[in-house]
Model the fold of this input.
Amino acid sequence: MSWINDLDALASAGVIGFDAPAYIKGVQPRYYGNPSLETLPDTLPQMNSQPKADEFKSSSTGVNNPSWKKWGIGILATAGLLFGASKFKTPRRLFRIARVYAKRKIPRKIATLSKKYWAKFVGIFSKKTTPKP
Done:
């Protein structure tokens, strides 16, 4: 007997309740449940062929939104930005403060941080000597 017949005998005896050889081979099952051994066919359907190379084949090109959705999202985003900008009481003053802060404070902070971290980086490679007693 072959392993297919052995598993079919287990299915007819009620030990397993499905077509185990078809499950193992990955093909369409011939039966479900516990059929009698005499009614079982001797051969399984042909197994799916294995690929020759390991490759990924995309089945779809991705999401294709219709143009009305793209336009709608764009209009909503623009309206949201305009509404948010309208809620500022003095936008000119806000931009002036941001410009002054960017000119004076940010370059100083960058210079300070770069000097601090450069000193730490150089300190890693410097040779430390211990005083002799």
In short: The first helix runs from residue 3 to 13. Helices lie at 3-13, 20-25, 67-86, 91-125.
